[in-house]
Amino acid sequence: MKCVICQNESVIVIKTIFFCETCFQNKFFQKIRRVLKNLKDKNVLLVLSGSRDSLVLAYFIDKIFLNRKNTKIHLFCPEFNRFIDFFENLCFQKINFQIPKISNENEDYFCTNYIRRLLSMLNENIEGSEKIRSVIIEENLNESAAILFDFICNGKGRDACNYARGQIDDLIFIKPLSDIFNYEIDHYYLSLKNIVPLSAIQIKRSNIYEMSANFIDSLTKDNYSTPYNIIETLKKVPK
C-alpha cells in the first residue's frame, strides 16, 4: 500500500491509514506542535515521570521551544538522575531545589495536590504575571481517558469534567500527547532509539486506573475513537 500523503511505499498503519516513516514522523510532530503553538505563558512547568511517553514528549518539546526565548520551561522529573545524560542536553530550566515530600500514601508526584505544592514553592521567586499556572503533562489519549475513570470511581466526578476540559480551579493542564494513541507512540519510540533512552520506567498507578486502562484498551480494539469519545463527553457536562 502507498503512503496516504506522499504515495511512497508505506511501512506504518495507523487506524487503517498507511504512512511512510517520514510522513508518520511529520504528522506526529504536527499533532504535538498544534497543542503548544498558542502557549503564551512566560513560565511553564513540565512534569515528567521518566516513562516512555514522557521522554518522547521531552524530546519534541525541546525541538519546539529551542528558539522560543519568550517561554521558559521548568522541568521536574523524580527520575531525573536516571536519565541525566538525556535531560542535560535539553534546553529546559531544571528544578534543583528540595522538592516537597509526598504527604500520604494516596499521593504521588503527578497528582494535582502535589503539583500545587510544587508550584507554590516555584512561584515564591517569580513575580506577578510571570508566575507559573500552566503545567505540561505527558498523558496520551488512552491515559487521559483512564485517569478520568479513576476520578469518577473515586467520587470526583466534577474534577473529572474539569480535568477533561484542561483546568481544575486555577491549575491549567496542557497535554501535547492528547491526540495521540498508545500504538502511535510505540512506533515513534522505536524511531528515536538512538536519541531517547530505551530504559524508560513504568509508572505505578492505582488498581482502579489499571482496570480502567485495560477496559478502555479492549474497547479501543473495536472502536479506536473510544478514548476520544470519553473525554469529549465529559467536556460537555455543564460546569
UniProtKB/TrEMBL annotation:
GO cellular component: cytosol
SUPFAM superfamilies, A to Z: Adenine nucleotide alpha hydrolases-like
Keywords: Cytoplasm, tRNA processing
GO biological process terms held by the UniProt record: tRNA wobble position uridine thiolation
Keyword Cytoplasm: yes
MF terms (GO), sorted A to Z: sulfurtransferase activity; tRNA binding
Keyword presence, Nucleus: no
The protein, known as: Cytoplasmic tRNA 2-thiolation protein 2
Protein source organism: Edhazardia aedis (strain USNM 41457) (Microsporidian parasite)
